[in-house]
Design goal:
283 residues; alpha/beta; Helicase, Ruva Protein, domain 3; Rossmann fold; two-stranded antiparallel sheet; 39% helix
Length: 283
């Protein structure tokens, strides 16, 4: 069997079992087995693969059919053009979260932002992406999970930003010892009733997904803590779930009555990010 046939077989098997994005998933699994870049794979599709490689690919496909995400199978996930190490102790970075990073980069380049806090950093995808693209900024990355912070530390090392990201273990903003210009967070926002032990999210850590009865528990905590952690004129950027924009905006407005709040949609047209800017204090 050559690479072309192996790729076609993996894609067909995944598609027949209703795996979303079967074409891409099949490619990811084959590339992982062969240890090849995308360009290298497609330039040499007629090369044969060994029996060992064929069996390895079939084994990975079987794992995917049982529901295990390909990011955990391969140990990698691309986010904002960067490759991140991931494992089952961290949430898999999603493309929609890139909207937060884009917004944060724009704000930082347009305003006097020198300190950013990424709350609930997980694998460090947001923090590392910001540090890579904003070399003059210090990023504080907090997480309650020591295991997740180890993954984040690995990704900081890989991308050469260890000196500009401060990893802090603790609940939400409690580890921050000084105020920051921008708070950014992709907090758990899935409603508890939507989490199933056998559902598509069952492989990912519940700690990073479960937002309580209405999905807003952690956002309420952030609202309570943010008052003492955000500088005058500072910003908050939050990822939200579908149909949560109105409720999240109301929570933020109640905490910061004079703040300006905006909601932005992702590429699918879903309201995905809420941004807040505090008014500058007058001395």
């Amino acid at each position: 069997m050559n690479r072309r046939q192996a790729l076609a077989h993996a894609r067909r098997t995944l598609a027949e079992n209703n795996i979303e994005d079967a074409s891409l998933e099949g490619e990811i699994l084959l590339r992982h087995v062969l240890g090849l870049s995308r360009a290298r794979l497609y330039s040499d599709l007629d090369y044969d693969i060994s029996i060992v490689q064929e069996k390895a690919l079939n084994g990975l496909v079987e794992r995917r059919l049982k529901g295990e995400p390909s990011a955990y199978i391969t140990g990698h996930r691309e986010f904002f053009g960067l490759d991140f190490k991931v494992d089952s102790s961290v949430l898999i970075p999603r493309p929609e979260t890139e909207l937060l990073v884009e917004k944060a980069i724009h704000l930082t380049r347009s305003h006097a932002i020198s300190r950013i806090a990424d709350i609930g950093t997980g694998c460090g995808a947001i923090a590392v992406s910001l540090a890579v693209n904003l070399p003059r900024v210090t990023v504080y990355a907090t997480d309650v999970s020591a295991t997740a912070l180890e993954v984040a530390r690995t990704n900081c090392d890989i991308h050469g930003v260890t000196d500009r990201i401060v990893l802090l273990e603790g609940d939400m903003m409690e580890p921050l010892t000084e105020s920051v210009d921008l708070l950014i967070a992709n907090l758990p926002y899935v409603r508890e009733s939507e989490l199933s032990p056998n559902g598509p999210l069952s492989y990912e850590p519940a700690l990073a997904l479960n937002g309580g009865e209405d999905g807003l528990d952690m956002i309420r905590v952030l609202c309570r803590q943010a008052n003492t952690k955000l500088r005058s004129g500072g910003f908050i950027l939050l990822e939200i779930g579908q149909n949560q924009a109105e409720a999240v905006a109301a929570l933020l407005q109640e905490t910061f009555p004079r703040a300006r709040i905006e909601v932005e949609c992702d590429l699918a047209g879903i309201q995905r990010a809420v941004s807040l800017r505090l008014t500058l204090s007058r001395i």
